[in-house]
């Protein structure tokens, strides 16, 4: 994690950082966190969903490559939505929450028994999505109260959460392995990206 406003400004992503030519913040913001609590929350989520999701992403080592690809792409889409909604913004965004929400988005589309990918319009997906909206609203209010009582300007980049989640939910299934298929010469084919 990083401490102080200098670190957050240096590593954080914002429209002003991009206009200053600090393009490295497009990736760096995912590795910077606003404090030990922020880092601990994200690491807890990663530890909780990482093993389950990697087991659904195929065999080793392809499952880890898919996992990392989903993580980074979700983080980038979350960052893009944040920048799109704050085109003149100066408030820096730090953290891996956009990337983590992309992992969550894909995880809720996959079934625990290896069955087919669940439709976005299914009741289960709608229920879980609504639960995530409520959790983010609670977190937003909690962080706003903490910022207000401490006099800081910290907030929640809900835009990154939403962008990452939508990427994982809608496009994440393209990273799932295809079911194993035997070809005429008897070889098993799997671990290739599944077309959706």
Notable traits:
single chain, 196 residues, mainly alpha, two-stranded antiparallel ribbon, globular, disordered C terminus
In short:
By secondary structure, this protein is an all-alpha fold. It is 59% helix and 2% strand. The protein has a two-stranded antiparallel sheet.
What is the residue-averaged pLDDT?
84
Percent in strands: under 5%
Tell me the structural class: mainly alpha
Shape: globular
From the alpha carbons, calculate the radius of gyration and give it in angstroms.
18 Å
Count of distinct strands: 2
Order of helices and strands: HHHHHHHHEE
Provide structural commentary:
This protein is mainly α and 196 residues long. It is 59% helix and 2% strand. It has helices at 4-11, 15-19, 25-28, 36-56, 62-85, 97-109, 123-150, 158-170; strands at residues 181-182, 188-189. A two-stranded antiparallel ribbon has the order 1-2. Strand 1 (181-182) and strand 2 (188-189) form a beta hairpin.
């Amino acid at each position: 994690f990083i401490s102080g406003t200098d670190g957050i400004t240096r590593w954080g992503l914002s429209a002003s950082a991009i206009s200053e030519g600090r393009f490295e913040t497009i990736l760096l913001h995912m590795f910077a966190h606003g404090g030990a609590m922020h880092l601990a929350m994200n690491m807890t989520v990663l530890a909780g969903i990482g093993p389950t999701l990697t087991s659904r992403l195929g065999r080793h080592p392809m499952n880890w490559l898919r996992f990392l690809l989903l993580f980074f792409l979700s983080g980038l889409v979350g960052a893009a939505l944040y920048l799109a909604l704050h085109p003149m913004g100066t408030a820096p965004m730090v953290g891996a929450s956009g990337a983590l929400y992309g992992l969550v988005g894909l995880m809720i589309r996959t079934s625990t028994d290896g069955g087919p990918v669940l439709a976005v319009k299914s009741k289960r997906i709608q229920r879980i999505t609504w639960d995530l909206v409520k959790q983010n609203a609670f977190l937003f209010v909690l962080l706003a109260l903490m910022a207000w009582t401490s006099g800081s300007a910290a907030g929640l980049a809900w835009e990154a959460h939403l962008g990452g989640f939508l990427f994982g939910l809608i496009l994440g299934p393209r990273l799932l392995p295809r079911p194993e298929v035997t070809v005429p010469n008897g070889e098993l084919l799997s671990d290739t990206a599944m077309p959706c």
